[in-house]
Amino acid sequence: MKAIIIGGGIGGMCTAIALRRCGIESEVYEAVKEIKPVGAAISIWPNGVKCLNYLGMKEDLRAIGGPMDFMAYKDFRSADTLTQFSLAPLVQHSGERPYPVVRAELQAMLLDNFGRDRVQFGKRLVNIEQKSDSVTAFFEDGSEAHGDLLIACDGTHSVVRKSVLGYCTERRYAGYVNWNGLVEIDPSLAPANQWTTFVGEGKRVSLMPVAGNRFYFFFDVPLPKGLAEDRTSLRADLTRYFAGWASPVQQLIARLDPETTNRVEIHDIEPFSPLVKGRVALLGDAAHSTTPDIGQGGCAAMEDAVVLAMTLQSNSLGIEDALLRYQNKRAERVKDLVLKARKRCDVTHAKDAATTAEWYAGLKQESGERIIGGMCETIRGGPLG
């Protein structure tokens, strides 16, 4: 059995490694000549960590993961702590730690594990063709790839998705813009082992520790789509949007590097049930494009990869049957994650001002038990417990 994998990002590389672990050959084709991860960092929660452990990268992940032991919310003006709590109950309940990691370092880890020289870069897919016993991928440069199945890990703008669904999907603007990047850890900004988030006015400023004595930071602001803003206006834009916010926020704006800070309009795609058609399967953002509000986008792709590989290995009624079993195991899970993220997005970014005000007030009475309970519920849905 040979699989064609379209896309060399997180989902594609995890899939290739998972298939190899299950004794299944694969070829990976990536559209760009050099992968430049979108976003500065990613939080890998215990369900994703367990997938990477299963794929043989337990120690490699720990080497690039940040020491996130606590979580806190702070008032946007005064910087007073609304709630602060240990993440130890999450670790104890789930059996793993969360690891915030730099996206580029995660991507490098995956490529090194699989073998960079085995990924074919500069291969932009233009079409696929299925037969009763094979799949062919056609690339922009005129080349072709032939396999027994094709796994589309080609992201939110997936070329393959339409051939599976039979229609084009529309991306839905989630209503806010996110700026993200990396800065050196400084205790005057936030504790070095804590995920710290300033909240107010439907906005967020967050600092999360990653390896190398760095914070991953992000700013969220509800804004109209398509504003004429870029790196040249970035610091001035953030200074305007966060006028009156607490000193650590102002320090962060002053210290960030506009040249390495990303500005992203956040979207998702309405969940859909068909994840496969014949010998073709969608995986990762191609199958379930989500907002980052519960930190499960990358973790869901890792789960997909593990489930797909295990299903192909453990079922013997043919490839099409195995892919349908993959779909049955994943469709409701990923729909739930997309809708949970959308719900959290709306609360956090003041889609309804009264609901968000109620959330702010509730944080002052939060012991951490409710938040960790919600995290554990999400994590429990993963394939490895």
UniProtKB/TrEMBL annotation:
Transmembrane segments: none annotated. This is FAD-dependent urate hydroxylase. Residues 2-338 form the FAD-binding domain. The keyword Flavoprotein applies. Its EC number is 1.14.13.113. It comes from Erwinia tasmaniensis (strain DSM 17950 / CFBP 7177 / CIP 109463 / NCPPB 4357 / Et1/99). The keyword Cell inner membrane does not apply. Its cofactor is FAD.
